[in-house]
Amino acid sequence: MQMYPELKEWRVFEGRLQVLVSWVTIAAMGSYFVFYTLAPWAYDVGPAILLLMALVALVFGWPRLRANLDGESQLMIATFLGYFLLQVSVLTMHGEDLSEFDLSTRYLGAAIVLASLLMVPVRAKPFFFAVGVGGAVTGGLALYWWGLEGPGRLQSFDNPIHYGNGALALSCLSLAGLSWASRQRYRALWSALFLCGLTGGLVASFLSGTRSGWVAIPLLVPVILFAYRDRILDKKWLIPVILAAVGLLVIAMVTVDVVRERSIIAAQQVEQYFEDGANYTSVGLRLDMYKAGLAAFSENPLVGIGPSGMEGKVDAMARAGEIHQNVAHYRHLHNQYIDNMARYGLVGLLSYLALLLVPFFLFLSKARHGLSSVRAIGLAGALFVVLHGVVNLTQSMLERNIGVMMYLFVLVFVWAVLKAEEREDQAASDAPVV
């Protein structure tokens, strides 16, 4: 059957448009991961461009979106939307100023971008390449800055906490990349890149002196063992290799001056707080923040007392001498779980737990997938969520724009790439055998 010229031209245009969208998406994703710890624009420019494209795609590409929106993706998107709606509802209930709604909109934006990216075939290769380069560049610059500045906590555009934990996140993703590389052509080159990314992220994390992420490292091992237990049991020589690697990592952490000194200081400050009431130290201030947060939660356990109410509670307790007066200078409580409880009550705590657990179990289920690329990407997502969940025991990452964007768009990109790999595998299976 002869195709009308207009229809033929439209299909050519549509094909070129899809290629352009794919390249823009790859560029946005690549810049996000390469500059993950190094430049603030990485969190705004790429996601903003993708959001604009997503709004157009959802209007004109709804039928195609429905075809790609499987049950698992619907659950991921519903989790983002649920967190957005619950926060907006509670903030409205407390009569908060419009500025308090700003961070909540990021969850709505992430849901929209994820829905549109399910229509874009962004594969594992550019994703893992960006992750490896990001970790390697971060580590190289960390060593360069350390050589220039000497001893002290390293940081980039923000504070050492976001820098160190961001670098550790790149290490986790690069570690998953090593698994992916084992099944690729030129696997030696890919493995070298991911080893540089893994090492670079660890080096930057250690030199930042950020303790919160280090606690997560032992908890990552069971996730890796769960994902690859079949390979480990088949190749028993891997067991001593893994144990040796963990041992070397522990030794490295102990021998790095910044790590050793800050770990000792943390233990001393905890002891001083409970024995002498020393609440002026870094750890002491955090413990006073937790005290204030739990006091706020007890006033309204269901929906909390809102951000403004939390500020008032902290000020009142500081004036009364119940907590150190410097606590009033902080914008959040340095514990996301307690922060959500104080601001949004049990509703806020449960919604945050859903924001952690739903992606974690979705990724963990994919970490046992039969396709090696999907398994590696699932492992990457699961490791990242574990890291974020542990870090937020001593941080409130979701109370700042950078923290929200660091978490949400890693989930968005990892899930979109994972689903693209699944679709490609399914298409290959359904193709007729010639």
Automatic annotation (TrEMBL):
Residues 202-353 form the O-antigen ligase-related domain. It is a multi-pass membrane protein. It comes from the Bacteria. Keywords: Ligase, Membrane, Transmembrane, Transmembrane helix. One of its GO terms (molecular function) is ligase activity. The chain crosses the membrane at residues 20-39, 45-63, 75-92, 104-120, 127-148, 160-181, 188-207, 213-230, 237-256, 344-364, 376-395, 401-418. This is O-antigen ligase family protein.
